[in-house]
Design goal:
Layout: H1 26-36, H2 64-72, H3 102-112, H4 114-130, E1 132-134, E2 138-140
Helix pairs in contact: 3-4
């Protein structure tokens, strides 16, 4: 698995995604098939780059962020002079999805380099989904919480 290829230009870690073909379970295929109203065999994703920005979760199937990166000739959004732009802006409505992690991921990639970010991407995703929000600290695990 080439984790660099499986890192979307927007900062999503496709290699950690439950829809990625190397991670998808039979149970998740069924749930995704029902949710997206597509056949089960069409549910696995090969990653943003291999799919050429075609996303099963976008009604139009065209990802505006992918199109923008292609037009500008950037490998990652953080390379753009407009970074961060409204295409990456998080939304409370989308907080259940990893899309709110994009700007954080891209900033870490810019700071550390993509290879080193890959080493911490699993921890970032775990903290996002399992951490408890604490003002001024972001998501923390139970053993890191401040006792008041």
């Amino acid at each position: 698995m080439d984790k660099i290829v499986l890192t979307a230009p927007c900062g999503l870690d496709c290699f950690n995604c439950p829809s990625y073909e190397g991670n998808i379970t039979e149970e998740y295929k069924t749930r995704l098939s029902e949710f997206l109203k597509i056949p089960r065999d069409k549910t696995p994703c090969k990653g943003c780059r291999d799919e050429k920005g075609h996303c099963k979760f976008i009604k139009s199937k065209n990802c505006a962020t992918w199109d923008c990166v292609q037009k500008k000739g950037a490998a990652y959004c953080y390379e753009c002079s407009d970074f961060p732009c409204k295409l990456l802006m998080p939304s409370q409505q989308g907080s259940a999805f990893p899309h709110n992690m994009k700007v954080y991921n891209l900033c870490r990639m810019k700071l550390l380099g993509v290879d080193k970010w890959i080493d911490e991407a699993t921890e970032i995703r775990k903290r996002y989904y399992e951490g408890l929000f604490e003002v001024g600290k972001g998501p923390v695990f139970e053993n890191e919480k401040t006792v008041i």
